[in-house]
Design a protein that fits this description.
About 30% of the residues lie in helices and about 20% in strands. It contains six helices and eight strands; from the N terminus they run βααββαβαβββαβα. Strands 3-2-1-4-5-8 form a six-stranded parallel beta sheet, sandwiched between helices. Strands 6-7 form a two-stranded antiparallel sheet. The N and C termini lie close together (about 10 Å).
């Protein structure tokens, strides 16, 4: 059975221009092609007429690159929504909290989600965990997600690639199936 037969919903998490400012988020971002790959996946979804949900983060911090007053709030050019595609705005890490995402998915009887976006260890991870907890069959696309360097609890620095891989490892098998873009498109 092809993945498309399950009528999977594509959930694009926070693929916004604000994440192009690497230094603001901790620097050294991995997967610099994540937005481009997200755009390729989005085009495949559109060609198959499958459901699409664009999630964007609206920070309550006036100084944030994701505050609605900042140009960074806008969607990345690779994934600009089209007229018939749902746009959901959130204020926290999970795309399910304070939004109508679950109601929209339930209304359309969708139970399979493919999640991509930024950042792997924050909003992608939180949304994927909640998706699985709600009973959705969940996939996360490893090369269409990205992370930044992080500072640990003792001041140590963790490289973005390690942060990304650990976030995926924590999701794998318990919360989501991890695929890369090529694997996803082959299964689609």
């Amino acid at each position: 059975m092809k993945l498309r037969d399950k009528k999977p919903a594509l959930i694009l998490i926070d693929v916004q221009k604000g994440f192009l400012d690497e230094s603001y988020w901790g620097g050294n971002r991995n997967n610099k092609e994540a937005e481009k790959l997200s755009g390729e996946i989005l085009e495949a979804w559109r060609s198959l007429n499958l459901p699409i949900f664009h999630i964007r983060h609206s920070s309550t911090n006036l100084q944030s690159k994701l505050h609605e007053s900042d140009p960074g709030f806008e969607f990345n050019d690779y994934v600009l929504p089209q007229n018939n595609e749902s746009i959901i705005t959130k204020n926290v890490n999970s795309a399910f909290i304070g939004t109508d995402l679950k109601e929209k998915l339930d209304f359309q009887k969708l139970d399979t989600l493919v999640i991509l976006g930024i950042t792997t260890n924050h909003c992608v991870s939180t949304t994927a965990r909640m998706a699985e907890n709600f009973g959705f069959e969940t996939y996360v696309i490893s090369d269409a997600t990205a992370a930044f360097d992080r500072v640990g609890i003792h001041g140590e620095k963790y490289e973005a690639e390690l942060v990304h891989l650990m976030a995926l490892a924590n999701l794998s098998e318990e919360f989501a199936t991890i695929l890369n873009t090529e694997e996803l498109l082959r299964k689609l």
